[in-house]
Amino acid sequence: MEEECARYRCEGEDGSPITVLEFQYFDQVETKAGRRRYPGAQRLALSTGEPVRYIDPTTFEVIGSGELLRRRNRR
Given this model, what pLDDT does residue 73 score? Predict the structure, then answer.
């Protein structure tokens, strides 16, 4: 199972607003002690589904095009 866990407001190289979404896979298991969630891999993508790579705390890269996305200041 996969769920969205964060959204990052960014700007493209041309200054256009872009949102990067962070997803995390997890497994949910019923045990004698109750339901347990086990986190797995995370992935980043644009709302269009294009994969994105984390570069540093303020920069992402669209893998297919190489475009760098800068996080907007949090205000």
Answer: 76
Q: Hey, how many other C-beta atoms are within 10 angstroms of the C-beta on 42? A: 13
Are residues 36 and 28 in contact, defined by beta-carbon separation less than 8 angstroms? yes
Count helices and strands in the chain by DSSP H and E runs: 0, 6
The owner of tokens 């962070």 is: 22
For the chain, state the CA radius of gyration. 15
Nearest-angstrom CA–CA distance, 23 and 17: 20
Q: Is the pTM of this model over 0.70?
A: yes
The domain ranges of the chain are: 2-71
CA–CA distance, 21 with 60 (Å, rounded to integer): 11
Assess whether pLDDT exceeds 70 at residue 46. Answer: yes
